[in-house]
Amino acid sequence: MMMPWDLARELDRAGVLGMNGRNGAYISQVNQRRLYPLVDDKLLTKELAQKAGLAVPELYAAFRYSGEVRNARAVLDKYQSFVIKPANGSRGNGILVIKGRVGDSLRLGSHRLMGWDDLLFHMQNTLSGIYSLGGQEDSVIAEYCVEFDPVFQTITHLGVPDIRLIAYKGVPVMGMLRLPTSESEGKANLHQGAIGAGIDLASGRTLTAVWRNSVVHQHPDTLAEVSGVLIPHFDRMLEIAAGCNAMTGLGYVGVDLVLDRAKGPLMLELNARPGLNIQIANRAGIGARLRTVDAAGAEKLSLAERVAFAKETFKARVGAATA
Amino acid sequence: MRNLHVYILAAVLAAIGLGLAAYKVAVIGLPLQEKAAVSAWEVDSEIRVSANGGPLKLATFVPEDSREFSVLDHRVAAPDFGITVAPEGANRRLNLTARAVTGRPAARQRFLVRRNNVRAREKRLPPPFPQEITLSQTNQSIARTLYVAAHAKSSDVTTLVSVLLRELISPDRSENVRFLLGDDRSQQKIATIAAQVLRVNGLFARAVHGIDLAKTGVAVDTKAWLEVFVGDHWQAFSVATAESRVPRDYFAWWRGDAPFIKVDGGKLDRQRISVTRVEETVLRHALALGKHGGVFLTNYSLYALPATQRAVFRVIMTVPIGVFMLVVLRNIVGLRGVGTFMPVLIALSFRDTHLVWGLVLFSVVLATGLLVRLYFDHLKLLLVARLGAIVMFVILFLAAMTVLSSKLNFEPGLSVALFPLVILTMTIERVSVIWDESGPAEAIKMAALSLIIATVCYLLMSAHPVQHIFFAFPEMVLVLAALTLLIGRYTGYRLSELLRFKVLAEPKQ
Fold it and tell me: A15's torsion region: left (phi>0), alpha (psi -120 to 50) or beta?
């Protein structure tokens, strides 16, 4: 029987970061509260990213008031596919993916059908704040629906896989590929049942994957191998992530990216309080990597140098990919 | 740097809190346990005289606070007399006077004696001078002889007095002593003579009269002992043992050679002193002493509030411990319930409903609220309107339940007070939002967890020792605040995270 303090010591030795450590030692030190709206409000983030020259999914329309929602059908009818999301949503709640039409109904990413009035009701609810942090009034975003890269075709189910990178002081420190499953209903959030696969920053290849807190090698729906998958354009993703700290002023930020078939890597959203599950997906502690960045003073390097530093320093050990 | 600041602040807060509490325990005597008991003594002195019919004057003594004891609730009952109190030497005289009385008038004084928690600072009274000497010339020369003999066998004033007293009380007393004392060998006589012998030889000395509080009864004897001014204070000497101390239950009443009661214009019929022991809580004792002594921390404490406010603050002062527990559960254990401090509020409302019925009520009403919510989901209402409607139906349901339980004479059902109702509706709202945001499984899990946490909070907050500590020592909240600040800088793992990240501690294959 392992005693709790022994376990805590083991975790500490592995450089694992806990919630208190993340909040107390990093977020509260390097993320200023007044900057949170930049990443909590996806409209602001999108604006910021476009100004910085980063590719983002195209914004079709934003709805801020109840009255505007009534025109939603007129505005959105011309798009075959689009995504509806709350501007201040968290944990992937309130996101609807419309893939096409069946008669007068909308076909969702989960293959369910939905009427326009249901969609409008969903948008009204979102405006009144049921998906926003703290229940404040919210806005609704309608944007381009990503056509994900064929490399993920066999390892996802009903949704768009995304890549989460954590950037600390301009250095990407850890990454994971999140793969929707039937259980997560197309969502890429680990706590909702998506698979998380760690990524070797040096090669852009996926490492082992976790699903529901256990290690898996195959996607539970497609049975395809999820380890050792090479993510295209990974270097570009590292560059995007490395630039996000300077762009937002946040020292510790989670960057969510998707890989579009035609447009390449797109920056989806940012997170000022990125989750800690990424450590389980990588089977490595992030605390140790943060300390490495601090010790090396890596924030003084140029962007290219920081990416090179990350690839060199956080290279997966040989054989880890097949472990 | 920031950590150091927090540590210093926490240390200062904890030091203030613990220091104040320690001071109140040690000096004011507030007990750590509410039920601890202590003794006080009720003393009743009754005097009855036969009046001659002419002017009548009774003189006796009023006891005063001493280092060891406080005299409280002193009352004189003498319906036939005019009452005056005047200082006289080291004593306070109680003079009872009447112009023309017949029959057997009575007078009594009654008071409560409490032992001081901390010995009061001694009044360093300079001894009165010149001292009255009542011995005859012959006796004075005997006194000098005795003194010289005692002086030769002693090293300082204290031993000198002891040696002299031993000489006076020894069974095979010398001729000189027998001459001095005569046939009277009472403590009073010995104390008086000893004081005279010492006075003749230039020392300050006096007889002390009082009672032994350890001997309770309806007619107790007065005791006498000797006090000598040694160095800078009056030192007590027992005339029974000749030692330089008296039993701790000896309560001094008056000093000098005067008799306890002097009667002019009548005859003393009866004099009786009775002592009763009263068992009291330490708390009452300390508060009474504090009030008597005008202690600031007693007069400006929560105890000084009117009864209704006291009852409210008994509850309010336990909120910090519940809040602290939530902080520990969140940041160290890693559990969280509905809302930040909602479980503490639920625990507070359990005080009105009682635990078991409170749990039943919460579960039933919560389930009803969520069922209503489930139904409303189909109506496609806006969020705030839907929550509002849920709250209205919950209130109707509560009213119906209360009326029903009243008709069925089911007592607990009637105990729904305003506060639990507000908390209930707030909880339903919070749980509804969680249901919307994270699904029914999460909502039910959170609700159940909240009730469990609230139950623990309730048990803690309604425990009498806890209530007593935080009511008697509100400064303990500072100690909790200090601990909370420290937890605020705790960056280690939460217990739940040990489980969550366990896989990372295992070596990779």
Answer: left
Closest residue by Cα to residue B348 from B329, B330, B368, B362? B362
Q: Which residues touch A77 (CB under 8 Å, ≥6 apart)? A: none
Q: Which residue, among B102, B150, B103, B114, has the nearest Cα to B287 in the 3D structure?
A: B114
Q: What is the DSSP letter of A105?
A: E
Contact call for A21 and B383, based on CB within 8 A: no
- Give me the amino acid identity at A76: L
Q: Which residues of B touch A25 (CB under 8 A)?
A: 491
In angstroms, how far is CA B116 from the centroid of its own chain? 11
- Whole-angstrom distance, CA of residue B53 vs CA of residue B50: 9
Pairwise CB contact (< 8 Å): B505 & A130 = no
Tokens read off for A314: 């956080």
**Contact (CB, 8 A) for A240 and A54:** yes
Asked if B500's CB is within 8 angstroms of A20's CB, the reply is no
pLDDT tens column, B375-425: 887 776 777 787 788 778 878 887 888 788 778 776 665 556 667 777 877
- What residues of A are in contact with residue B335 (Cβ under 8 Å)? none
Q: Does A133 touch chain B (CB under 8 A)?
A: no
| Contacting residues of B for A135, CB less than 8 Å apart | 433
Distance of CA B432 to the CA centre of its chain: 49
Q: Is the confidence metric ipTM above 0.85 for this complex?
A: no
Nearest to A18 among B437, B488, B493 (CB): B493
pTM, two decimals, is 0.71
